[in-house]
Every structure is written in structure tokens, then in C-alpha cells.
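For the sake of transparency, this paper describes our internal protein records without simplification. The record that follows is passed on verbatim for readers who wish to inspect the format:
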Amino acid sequence: MRKVASSAGTCRTAGGRAARRLLLFGMVWFALCLGIGLWSLGQEGPGAPRQLRGPDGPRLQALRQRAFLAVLERAAAGVPHARLYQEPRSGADDVLQYVMEGVRAPLRLALGMQERVEVWRRSMRPGAGSPLLQPGEAPRLVWRDDGSLEVCINERPVLRIRFPGQEAQLGALARPLGEGSLVIVIDDMGQRLETAEQLAALPFPVTFAVWPHARRAGEVERLARERGLDVIVHLPMQPLRREGGKQPDAGPGALTESMSAAEMRAVLDAAFTRLPSAIGFNNHMGSRFTGSRNGCRLLCSQLRGQGLFVLDSMTQNHSVLCKEALQQGLVGAERSVFLDNERKVPAILAALDIAAEKARRHGLAIAIGHPYPETVQALRQWPLAAGREGVAVVSLRRLVWHLATRTDGE
């Protein structure tokens, strides 16, 4: 399983029954896809699969394409508004080419594919071989500078997907994430469009964590999409009682640890239907829910195959949300710094410097702030501050893809 660098909070995967069940599911699922592919090729003539010869054989290429097309179709089924069309092949190019239209969150499609490919890759024992792969080969998903996504084996593309109209944003995913990368997330978005416009005008990207039931959530999401910014769902979760026994109100659509799987699924479906371009979520409040191992485990089990990123806001020190997400094969990270616990510009600038230092020291960091006037003012001033030296503020999508494709030990 993948792990998250300590800059975004130390959050490592663990073994256990959940991981083994996921692995078994992946092996069975991929075997089924492979069986279908072999059966399909067999319809072309008796003994067709036996005619596979070498890594560049046309029948082997066709078998690989059919298997990974099944991966693509399964991932596309979990992404809202996705319409998939096959493109005619150009010249001698034997790559299977598709266009995806209507999809507002292409990264979710890539993560959904990556989840399935990763499960299959880890299920292969060294030296066991596969009808799809030659010894030493492994599939890899690669973003290209033109914004297309390719499934490659030994750098040779097997399947290519284009996303018309989103090339500029997606092309950035082809660049490796440098050391000293900082992501800034602004919570509680969706109430005021004016603040969203101010944040979108900053000289570096910020991520909007939008309340799905906020009165202007749709307008804020649309603004972020038009400006090339990332959106995540700011998902209300059950908080702990305060001193004196008062129960804070997390707001509409809040997850509670007593919910059933079906109830959680309904909350998630409603939230992501309202914000279809969201690439994941973080928790609003949630100090009780994120400390419940059973609640977090059940929640994360509803997310498998959906290509969603989980950001643990760490509203309490013993949160297990990120750990449970990683254990179930999802991509997750923890918040490094809260920027505006003290709503004064000098204090927020100091917190930004602390976040920058964490990014320099650990390679990655995630800072969370709020749409306060003081926070907006500090963010406007901060690019001129010495604390930003040696640090790049990057989009969340780049960090997420980096975490999804890194190997253990990186």
C-alpha cells in the first residue's frame, strides 16, 4: 500500500483483513476481465490466444487493449457526467484511442483506473507471470503534456484517453512534483461568491473545500472550474460534545458514526451530485466521527473504485480517517498546518511561513485556511514574504497524482 509523506501528516498504511479482502477482490475482478478478453479473442478463430508471440505481437496488444478497456469502462461508470467515445485510429498507430466528454473531474477517472491497476500489480507474485505481461513488465498510467492519459507497458502506449477542453489543466499532471511543494486549501466555501473571486485571483492556486449544501455552492464550484482551480467537498461530520455537554451542529448532510452503509452512501451521493467536479473531500468538524475506526472504515469502504481523494483535516489528534482510507487502497493525506486559528494578518503570515518550512523539510505540506478577510489579505501579501523562498504552491491535483503513483519508500 502507498503511504503519505510526513509533510502532509504522518499517515501510513497498515495490513489487516480489509487490505487482504481488497487484494482478493482485485485478483478475482481482473481474472474475470482477463477471461472475457481471452474468450473474445477466441471468437476470432480456434486457438487464437495460443498465437500470442512476443511483447509486440498484434494479438497480445489486442488482448491488453481489451483488458484495460474494461478497466477504463469500470472507472468511467463511477464518474459523473462521463461520456466515452472511441476514436478512429490514425495511420499505423495501434493504440486504442478514446475521447471522454462531459466529465468534470478527469482526475477521478485516472485515480479509479489507478486503484484497479495497482491492486492487480500487487497481486502478481515475482516470477509468476501473466498472460498479459512478459517478465519484468508492469502497466503504468501516464499523463502527457497534451492533457491525454495513457496506459503504457514498457513506455509503449496501449490505451489513450483525451479530454477535450481540459488539456491545459491536465497537462500539468505530466510534470513531476518538485521538492518543497505546498497545497493551500480554503474550507467553508460556498457562502459568498465575492470571496471566491478574490481567492481565485491570487497569483498561485488554492483549492476550494465547498459545503455541498451552501446557498452558492454551485456558483463557487463553477467559478473554480472556469479558473482551473480544484474543488473538494467540505463534508460535515459528527463532532465531539463540548464542555458542558453541548453538541455542536455540523450542518445539513453530516455523517454520524451510527449511520449504516446505505445512509452514508446516500449522503455521499447527494454531496457529489451537488459538486460533480470535486476530486475528493475533507471533513468539516468531525472530531467524533474521524476518531471512530468503525465509522471511518465503513465510510472508506463506500469510496473504493470512485477515484476520490481523502483529506483528513485533523480536527483532533487521534483521527483515523486517513489511515483507514490508505488501508483500503484510497489516496489520502493529512493536514499539516491550520493557517488562521488566530484571525490576525501577522499570525496568518507566520503560519504560512511554518507551512512553507514543513514543505521544505518534508517535500510536501498541506495548509488549511478559511475565507476570512484577514486570510485573504495575508495570502495576497505572502508571495512577497521571505517565508515562501524555495517553496512552490501547487494545485491539489498534482499532489494527489503524485501520491497515487509513488512507490513505497519514496
User: Anything to note?
Assistant: The chain has two domains: 59-170, 177-405.
